[in-house]
Structures
1.
Amino acid sequence: MQKTLIPSACQMTGIPERTQMKDPQSKYSRSKPRVIKRPEVSAQERRRRKGLLMATLITCITLAMIGGSLHVMKLGSMRMKEMQAKASYDVSDMSKHVRAAGEEIHLQTQHEDTGGDTASYSEGEAVELLSDEQWRDLAWMITIPSGVFTMGSDDSRTGEQNRPAHQVRMSAYKIDKHLVSQAEYARFVAANHYRPPLNWDQGKIPQGLNMHPVTMISWYNARDYCAWVGKRLPSEAEWEKAARGDDARRWPWGNQMSPSNLNTYYKVGHTTAVNQYPQGSSPFGVLDMAGNVQQWVADRFSPYPGATGSQKVYEPKALDPDYHRGSDEKERLLYRVMRGGSWKSDPLSTTSYHRNYALPNYASDFFGFRCAMNIDAAKEK
């Protein structure tokens, strides 16, 4: 029988058999990686590259600092515009308005000399400014018990004039629950033919402000009012104890800032009624011991016992060479203490231990006061 020869697959495809017979696993084989030998870098070249790297880093840091500074400047500009927008008057018209303490000293001096001729309320008209209930509320005084409390602060972030914290023993006394209002001051003006505040309109309280604290009041004006009602200005220690109690808290309500408890930092843009923030009352129930208006107290501005800071801050600097005190004042140039911060102050200035100061003849649209009384004198009333 003749055998039939069947061609192989290699022959049918025309591919050389030698090629087809390779190891089937050969497609997974890998050639050895090619090793590239880098040229050796000289010491001089390494120094050059290191210098370029340092220059790049310094450039990046510089650009970051410049960018950060520009960002801060932009934020500051935005904040200034925001505060100006919240001001109680158009900033472009600022020159026509009373500004911060000292900036209107000549105008205030002239007012002290001639303001007594300004027509104001009759005594009957002044009484009609408020209801009987409002008068009773404003007459309320709060008894502060005797005892020891912490005055000042050891916080390193606070001003030197507020340090150190120290213990003070107090006798009992009384202090006004509220700031002295515009209406109360109107009765004083009417009864004594006294100079009305500089920011009254033709001797009358601006509309809607009867229950707001009286402002544009110098230390002498505050002293005269308190004497007229049979009281006096509180001492600095009396004010602070009434504000913070005996647990050394930072604000009248506690140790945390609470913007809803006070009128400060242009939040409102002007004063508010003396009974508007009961939620911000002190441990004894005294209102507006933080914000609204900065309050005169009796004391001269001087360092605390044990203070180690610079004494220069306590030395008065007269802006006016013809310093005007008042007709019966003979004391030498000095500062009087102010407490509580105001509607213009930054929040840290409203802490109960913060001390501010001004020359006693200065007055401003954020200066006010309240009165105090010895406990024995209070019993006699």
2.
Amino acid sequence: MHILVVPDSFKGALPAPEAARAIENGLKRSSLSFSSQLTPLADGGEGTVDCLVRSAGGRFVTARVQDPLGREITARYGLIEDSPANNISKPSKPNQSTKPTKPGNPNQSSKPPQLNKSTKPVQTNKSSKPRSSSTSQQTQTTAVLEMAAASGLPLLKESEQNPALTTTYGTGQLIKDALDRGADKILLGIGGSATNDAGLGMASALGARFLSASGEELKGIGRNLARVDKIDLTDLDPRIPETEIEVACDVDNPFYGPEGAAHVYAAQKGADSEMIDELDAGLRHLAEIIAAELECDLQQLLGAGAAGGLGGGLHAYLGASLRSGTAMILDFLQLPVKISRADLVITGEGKCDHQSSRGKVIGALAKHCAAADTPLLVLCGSCDRDLTPLYNQGVTSVFSILNRPATLEASISETEELLTLTACNIGQLINHLNKSIQ
């Protein structure tokens, strides 16, 4: 039996890699004979860099960049060389790769299913020039970035939070550093921003210029959104058109308006009601300039308002595609292929409820497992009474790891032990069922 172990983090208790090892250790304590493959997951938010880099065998690097207020800091991101080859980590036992079909289904083809490739937005002002011939078509260097490492709210004291003055310039510096290190694909998470500059700062760090009506070059901050009269991409880093950029974006807020970037998110970044109105008016004005000069209607782009309009800016200036963070990660780690080769998939997260079926890791895994006819078990700290939506999506069964009444603090501190014990019990059950069937 080959088991794929793919947990999300148990937030506040256990990171995804440690959760995966705890589940595997529990299975090993049982009498079950199995091979396993560990692929810790994330949903595109906090922990995405660690998840992807560790799962794909990459490495961490650092860069000196500006924080949201222009102060120099060190930010970390990940590089994954030869991505297509490294995406599928090796199983803990060698027999997995020789398993052509799943037991009980002899007609199943051994050929793994094709992954759905993301569609890159049309770039009306971009060159179609291919990547240089020195880069093999068989390999790829992927940079995994989180904008929060350079432009995130946690980098500021509460008294410093001001989305009219903060900038995404440091995020642009991270992208440039990745390009300097040879990245030809960039995966960027944009959660946790301290900014509302619609990516003006980010693009400026890559060579773009935003000019006022008098020709003054504007600093990339939220206060200057309404002053932009012309966008000059002449000196934009020439490597950008040759680079595939995918943005993990799990919100669908429009660029401006009552549900837009400023009205929904600016208050938590330090804006008062007057500033929110000014930022929203600036976003509306910038959207008109972008539509006229770049032929891009950001108000129609779902997620354009993410991260203070950075989602829209990445699309308009760099031609980036916005995707569900969970879907992006599952595709990059080639989970559909791994699931099709597994006899059982085990995942987990801190709480399993109605939201787990809506774009989160468990819901996405359930759809892939249902398509591959592969059982999916979910281990969690707590779960709703009614899990029918998850069962309908493809989850086989849900197990709470709690085995006695306990305080939240005690449960959190014992998460690793409880995961291991529950996985051991599951292994024992599966082993007994296998013997009964035989």
3.
Amino acid sequence: MNFTRRNILIIILSVLLLVLLSLSVFLLLKKTSSTTSKVSSSGLPDLDETRWIENIVLGSKGTLYGISLEDYCYEENIIAPGETLSKLFNGRYDIDMGVVNTLVEKCKGKFNLKDLRAGNTFVAFFANQGDTTALSYLVYNKNRREYVTFSFGDSLSVNTTKKDIQMEECYTEGVIETTLSDALPDDGLSYALADIFQYTINFHMLQKGDSFKVLYQQMYIDTTRAGVGKVFGVKFTHNKKEYIAVRYKQGDDEFWNEKGENMRKSFLRSPLEFNARRTSKFGVRIHPIHHNRRMHNGVDYAAPIGTRVLSIADGRVTRAYWDTKGGGRTVWIKHSNGLESAYLHLSRFAVQTGSRVSRGQVIGYVGSSGASTGPHLDFRVKQNGKYINPEKLPMIPTTPILKANMPAFTAMRDDILSVMAEYESNYQQGK
């Protein structure tokens, strides 16, 4: 009987051990799978998952910044507030001050010591053999693209390296629900589109339901987005009207509509760039300060103080002065064909009376001077001495595609629109 009971106990204990072992293996596998990087539809790791490798240069297997990981171990850290190169080398890693001074000298012409900034990352490499506290290399990430390698071997050296920028053809489309920036995958794309259509679409008047389709280059450093390269083609629908722009280089001009007409016009559609919104139209209104009905001879755009104000066309500054009737700091510019433009309530001037200005040149900065309830620009236009609605200013195209260039432009346009059509089809099928 005792033998039988002992066998039963052994069997029970064996089963329990087997269960515990299986549970341990399951938890280990779950933990491993939960730390695996996600892969996006583009084949690149999601950005949130790769922030920790943002500054790592991917070389051949077993290297980091071109340094063999078989020969060295490493640690990653950040520059502390107030930390200098001397404090970093001598204070953290006990490097002899004679060595530190030599490296500081070798920085001349290669690395400005003022570029050592708190919060930037660095990687320290230590020899695997012997004392692991002996620093062999220190790589400082100056910015997303550049890094500086300090060598502490027999030959002290300082070298600056630039990472390669990779270009990837991308396509995106979407509908504006809140702002254009929110609808696009890269902020740089917002400014690129605003620049392309600055003579055609008033981007301060975009509305919910406007849509876009863009063929462009996305720049990458390692696996991290690093801005927008060339934009090849755009279809932008604003107020139910579609505008098309395609890239083709002719002189200083790069974008044209599908007919070969220049996207650049004689006048800018707006004197402000992207970060503004229209708050008051041209016409009769209730004055915000005097509270009576009176004619508003311009268009108001709310924007942060200091926002750049641009001349809408070539011309000459006839007055840059303080308007005692409520305009505050004001600039008047005389253009061709009897046209004048005015920019009121500036915080400061960038031109003076008599200055010649070109289209798109900064002439001042948004403010709240004079009779104003807050930071904004009051933009006005006169035609032959009479105020007109700036938003109805006729946009006159500049030089079109030359006849000799039309066959090459047509081929380029058709190629771009064909590629976009293919992307559009795949996008719709993938919904």
4.
Amino acid sequence: MKKTKNKRLRILFATFSPYRNGKRESTNGNVEPMVKYFGPRVSNFILLDQPHTGSDEIIPHVEVYKSRKRKKAYILNMWYLRPLYWVLGRIRTTDDDTNLLFKIRDILSVLAVRIQEGGYFDVFIGFESVNALAGIILKKVGLVKTVVYYVSDYSPVRYQNSMFNFFYVLLDRICCYWSDYIWDVSRAMHPARIEAGLIANKSAPVVHVPNGLEKRFIRHISEKHRIPHSLVFMGTLGIENGPDIAVASLPLVLKKIPDVTLHIIGKGDKDLERLKRLAMQANLENQIIFDGYIKDTDRMFATIRRFALALAPYRKIKNSVRWYGDSLKLRAYTAAGVPVIVSSVPPLGRELADIGAAIVAEDSAEGFAREIIRVFNDERAYSGLVKSAVEYGKHQAWERTYSQAMKEMPVL
């Protein structure tokens, strides 16, 4: 889509983020990239950011951008929303993803933004199904032209509670049928919907909109400047992500690669203590370095670039969203030019393996150790993996993601 055509658009983007101490955290990483991409390109870009249920605040935030600049920012503290906020402030829920009142808040906040800002929206982008549903409502009453359903996670069996899961799948299906476009972060999502019962020819067209990174993070260093035989695991440290497999594989690798080291980057006090105990029990205190959580993203990427090989040993857990979703971990590794040993769980891992930037291993200590040893003992194969990872990583910028998405939406 040509830039001059984009300039005439008025876009409302409804999403959610965790908030701490009055500030938006970066867990939902598409907020700033959306603002940076669309702000300079459209006549009016409005961001509605709803605090996630785990936040220390409840009231949604609004930011209005015109001609590259933020013109105003405010919270949706209208009198007709305050009774709901009062109730939400006193709720203690056991499942912060499924609280009905927060879903009601999200729908009402979209309608409230329309009341406050007025006018007609050319494009409404709703992150996840509740926000997309609100956009569909606005379209039905003639206030929106095009609705985009933006999806970051999907699983046909997302919740163990059958009632929650029924409504989750139903809401997703409604949004697929009544939106104008679906932005899926992974190509595996829509086939899973169809297998679960979605009628393909009734669905809106799907646009692949993978997660991205800021351009400044996409850099690599030469092989000779990396720590020889070094491994890195980066990310949350829950068992489902496989850090235990990474730790358990190390004694097997040491038998063949005596100078191998494993660096673990991530947070989670209980998980971190569990992994440290495993390392101690295996006498690996000198071979495993716990770098902790690196909050500064520039420093985190500078750290990752130093390592020779990255690990992503996702566990094979039935109905996990990781079978269908994108993996920002893998995108970060390749952006740093580091090839990956990955389990067969994430679709992106299989994609990287197909182009020679990763190797798929069994999700076991033996499976990962076998592939690590094979790669480190074959310099030519390792160099080929690095070359492919660097080439793939060059194309991970958010700007490319959204530019490509807009080109695939000719109705605009």
